[in-house]
Fold this protein.
Amino acid sequence: MPLSTPEVEQTLAPLGEARMLPAEAYTSAEVLVWELVQLFAESWVCVGRAVGAESGAQQAVALGAMGAVLVRGDDGLQRAFANVCRHRGHELLELGANTLRPTIRCPYHGWTYALDGSLVHATGGDVREPEQCALGELPSTEWLGWAFVNASGAAEPFEHTIAGLDEILGPYEPARLVPIERRMYDVHANWKVLHENYQECLHCPRIHPELCVVSPPESGDNIEPGLAWVGGWLDLRENAETMSMSGARVGPIHPGLDERARRRVAYFAVLPNLLVSAHPDYVLTHRFQPIAPDVTRVECEWLVDPSVTEIADAVELWDITNRQDWAACESVQRGLASGAYRPGPILQREDAVHHFVGLIARAYLGRAGPGRSGDR
């Protein structure tokens, strides 16, 4: 692990005594390479929404340094395959593309595979051992409408890593919702800086005036975190029904919510790369893809009841808030890279930040980490 052990150890001190990770954790290309293997390839990574429900639905997604193709089989199950043809290595489907076919077909030479990955046709002659040319399947799962893939195949069972969060987010029924809007941002900051920003609202009164009109930043609380998740709630102001520019709802209230949940917003991070902000009437997600130590690509997606056709009021609020956050994160990144930064203290109201950086620090030190049991 390419970081000084004493500098990382100080992050694990009790809240109020602990300090943030050293600057190199956010600026070093060597550290990012390590993270992409140890924290992304070794974990369950969210690759977006689950593939379509119809047999033969296929979607190409990014998975760290590699790509995967999500496929809905004849048996109704979603599978993930490395996006690599077993003939000459051509991508089976262009990244971001989706299609509906009864087979998986390479566009280069036409090698064709069944929806379970087995070889059906090899252009150019017979293959002596076709079972040796099946597509490389990767462990995958669906959770509340999102697809998760483990590139290494070595992660603990998904149910173990996410235990406890189903009960919190399940009543919002995100699998029933449909995407209505998507925004992409390239943020010039390390992926962990974005996570840390999400885990506290101390900054909200200073940079988010629009957000504070509908949600008091001092409200709510964090809850006991799980093995690979952390988060809590913020309340809505008395005159607000949801997080939107006007405070008015943009869709029907999720039917599974109790009265308390209808008056607050849930903010949870599923490590390493998914943020879920669940509102009374819609669900917002941010999905991170590290591009460089100081660049993170963010996909922001709004999910709504199928009856909803327009949510501009909510999109405007969050696009403004996103851009305010990105500017702050980019300023932090410049400070981290300046040479003047020394790890600052983690204070009492930054308990979720403390847990997040603690998970990262334990992974650096080889003491488990996000989604892996061990010393917590």
Notes: The mean pLDDT is 95. The chain has two domains: 5-41+163-364, 45-154. The CA atoms of residues 235 and 354 lie 22 Å apart. The first helix runs from residue 5 to 9.
